[in-house]
Amino acid sequence: MAAAVCVSMLAAPVAMAQGWQLTKIEGRDYVSIESVKKFYGFQTAEKKGNSIILKSVNGKNGIIMQLQIGSQECLLNKVKFIFTHNVEPGGSLGMMSQMDLIKLIEPVLRPNFIPNAGDFRTVILDAGHGGKDPGATNPLGTEANYNLTLAGKAKTLLEKKGFKVILTRSSDRYYSLQERVEIANAVRENAIFISLHFNSGGRDARGIETFTLSPPGVAHYGAGFKSSDAFARRGNEHDSANIALATAVHGTILRHLQGNTFDRGIKRARFSVLSGIRHPAILFEGGFMSHPFEARLIANEKYRDALALGIAEAVHKYQIAVTRAPIARPNP
After folding, report:
1. Dist. CA 290–CA 62, nearest whole Å
2. 268 and 211 Cβ atoms separated by less than 8 Å
3. What is the overall mean pLDDT for the chain?
4. How far apart are CA 206 and CA 294, in angstroms?
5. What is the pLDDT of residues 301-312, one digit of tens each?
6. Which of 15-24, 34-43, 95-104, 159-168 is predicted with the least confidence, judged by mean pLDDT?
7. Residue 291: phi, psi to the nearest 5?
């Protein structure tokens, strides 16, 4: 539900050190979408009713950002992100929460500003479940087995691209979530961590989704805010790298699936396997084993081949994106 705007709290904006102008809405800091347009170099901005579309045309690297007043959904080049807070009315275009600007929009639009994110050659692949824990099941197979085969396929492709790949498990063996974290953290060189899963839910639930660790102050996905959500976890050291990696993986896989899936978006949550990781980390859900159509897709080896290819290409794209030299922009 869209949060109501408290007019009494729309006091004079407070200037940030970087030059952003902040406005208080229900006690939270918001930034005008007009200033976002200016800072990131969007050439056009159009508002029709509650829909807002910002466009930046730069050859093949153009960006289209679509927002909706009263909604937490944001589309960046057709990839769905779930904001922490609704886009609110205000100014000529609308207002975006400072939390979403800093923790989501900034690392997605300027991944090359993330310090030292590209300094890695190691990828840790975590095949979820295993052994006594089969994960989601259906008459065609078990999630644990699909996770393991997907990890193996992605490992082969990543190694061909020159990456060192470490598997948290290479057989049908059970590891606790804490053991998986410990395996990952035992890797002392710079690395990235990708936990691989398939989903389960109601028969109508379908699509892929990618999770990063919630930043401090952001509620666990699907749950109300708790006081413990205000505290940082170890994995929050890499909030910006987490969301940039998630964007690369989620967007690349969507393109490889060519419309054969539903985009559930990039979301934030406090999954145990992400909270304690010392490396940039994401959790990918490759479809619903409980959905009649997707159950057959997941059982099809070609579908898992497409997922593995998307993961391998995404890791390479991510590394390139975060190692490019940053180009300074003027303050808004």
Report:
1. 37
2. yes
3. 90
4. 7
5. 999 999 999 999
6. 15-24
7. -95, 130
Percent of the chain that is helix, strand, coil (3-state, to 5) = 35, 25, 35
Exposed e or buried b per residue across 199-227, where buried means at least 16 C-beta atoms within 10 angstroms of its C-beta: bbeeeeebbbbbbbbbbeebebeeeeeee
Nearest Cα residue to 321 out of 86, 94, 110 = 110
Whether 59 and 74 have beta carbons less than 8 Å apart is answered as: no
Distance CA 77, CA 62 (A): 8
Query: For residue 251, what are the CA distances in angstroms to 203, 256, 258?
Result: 25, 9, 11
In which band, very low, low, confident or very high, does the pLDDT at 17 lie, cut at 50, 70 and 90? very low
**Counting every residue, how long is the chain?**
332
* Side chain identity, residue 59: G
pLDDT at 50: 97
Q: Give residue 19's pLDDT.
A: 62
Beta bridge partners of 263: 208
DSSP 87: B
What are the tokens at 12? 């004079």
Helix count (H) and strand count (E) of the chain?
A: 9, 17
Question: Three-class SS of residue 289?
Answer: coil
Is the separation of the CB atoms in 315 and 163 below 8 Å?
yes
DSSP for 112-159 reads GGSTTTT---EEEEEE--BTTB--SEETTEEHHHHHHHHHHHHHHHHH
Q: Is the pLDDT assigned to residue 175 strictly greater than 70?
A: yes
Edge-to-edge strand order for the sheet containing 208-213?
44-48, 51-56, 63-68, 73-76, 79-82, 263-269, 208-213, 281-288, 191-199, 122-127, 164-167
Contact 283, 211 (CB under 8 A): yes
Please state, in angstroms and rounded to a whole number, the distance separating the CA atoms of residues 74 and 265. 9
Q: Locate all alpha helices (DSSP H) within 176-300, ordered by sequence.
A: 177-185, 239-257, 272-275, 292-299
